[in-house]
From TrEMBL:
SUPFAM superfamilies: FAH (SSF56529)
Signal peptide positions on this chain: none
Domain of life: Bacteria
Domain Fumarylacetoacetase-like C-terminal: 125-320
Keywords for the protein's UniProt record, in alphabetical order: Hydrolase
Database matches in Pfam families: FAA_hydrolase
MF GO annotations: hydrolase activity
Organism taxonomic ancestry: Bacteria, Pseudomonadati, Pseudomonadota, Betaproteobacteria, Burkholderiales
Gene3D superfamilies reported for this sequence: Fumarylacetoacetase-like, C-terminal domain
The keyword Isomerase appears for this protein: no
Organism: Paraburkholderia metrosideri
Protein name: Fumarylacetoacetate hydrolase family protein
Length: 342
């Protein structure tokens, strides 16, 4: 199934509902409305997508049955009348893995060419070697998640806005110390992920060895969608064509077969002495040649970015400029502090 979180375009402040995209790909079955008609009562599974994921296989089976009856009760909506939010509008957590080391290698090379990373810094950081040894990841801001066809606002402090072509998994079962061989049981479904980046700020910050911080963390910085495609729909997640277009021009063509750290290994690593919960989102990392940095070009206001992953649909967002003019982040002088405090 392809599940969506949605609201009507005419009800901008309405609580999101969840539904199933019907086989015609133009119609969404409203699950809770159908349940009220067919079962004479709402179901807790369909309050929102988090509740659906917590419902496990029973919620999945009930959704499949009700989706087939939605037309009978006139509980359907044309897709073009809906706003498609991120499948889980507020994931419980958001981790992004360096799953494609070829991307890391290409990104560091480009950063060195642009002067943002010196050869000495690259050697000292050993980022590529570290990313090959274990599935490194960082946490992102779940409050900055946005959905399909939403606007992406360029942060006021960057002049190098970039897309990153990724896809990710939603956890559907609570688990800890998960073995790789069992990890598939914990994956409820997949979606496309655009990990937007302020590249100039990102490189400056990561010299501090903590993480990208404002290089990644800004409103609308995590675009996801358009659907949560249930795991049973994807036969092999490591054989998916991945394409990025900007203003209908193809910038990236890659394949998930290049994914070095696969979800089974990643879940095993992340869940060591740490519990994963339904609604946690774990992203693949940027695919090979999957961002503008590797190509030497960046996004600008007015651009329309389309990310397409085979079997998962197409995620589209428009880039817009902030109402506030560009203002670089002010930096403190560490030499002055040392001089004053010894």
């Amino acid at each position: 199934m392809k599940l969506v979180s949605f609201r009507s375009r005419s009800e901008a402040k309405a609580k999101p509902r969840i539904g199933v995209l019907l086989p015609d790909a133009n119609t969404v079955a409203d699950l809770q409305t159908t349940a009220q008609h067919a079962l004479n009562a709402p179901l807790e599974y369909f309050v929102d997508m988090l509740a659906f994921l917590e419902g496990g296989q029973e919620a999945h089976d009930q959704a499949a049955r009700l989706a087939e009856r939605a037309t009978e009760y006139a509980a359907t909506h044309p897709v073009n009348t809906l706003v498609l939010l991120a499948p889980v509008p507020r994931p419980r957590s958001l981790r992004d893995v360096m799953g494609f080391p070829v991307h890391i290698h290409g990104a560091i090379k480009r950063a060195m060419e642009s002067g943002h990373v010196t050869p000495e810094m690259a050697a000292q950081n050993e980022m590529f070697r570290a990313a090959m040894q274990r599935p490194l990841y960082y946490f992102s801001n779940t409050n900055s998640v946005t959905g399909h066809d939403s606007d992406i606002i360029i942060p006021t402090y960057t002049q190098r806005m970039d897309y990153e072509l990724e896809f990710g998994v939603y956890i559907g079962t609570c688990g800890k110390n998960i073995a790789a061989k069992d990890a598939h049981r914990y994956i409820a479904g997949y979606t496309i992920y655009n990990d937007l980046s302020a590249r100039d700020i990102q490189f400056d910050e990561m010299v501090g060895m903590l993480g990208p911080a404002k290089g990644k963390s800004f409103d609308c910085g995590n675009a996801m969608g358009p659907y949560l495609v249930t795991a049973d729909e994807i036969t092999d997640p490591y054989a998916l064509a991945m394409i990025a277009r900007v203003n209908d021009e193809e910038w990236t063509r890659s394949n998930s077969s290049d994914q070095y750290w696969r979800y089974e290994e990643t879940l095993e690593y992340i869940s060591r002495s740490e519990t994963l919960y339904p609604g946690d989102f774990i992203a693949s990392g940027t695919c090979s040649r999957g961002c503008g940095l590797e190509l030497g070009k960046f996004l600008k206001a007015g651009d329309v970015v389309e990310l397409e992953v085979e079997g998962l649909g197409m995620l589209r967002n428009r880039v817009v400029v902030s109402d506030t003019p560009f203002a670089p982040v002010p930096l403190r002088d560490p030499h002055q502090y040392i001089a004053e405090h010894g």
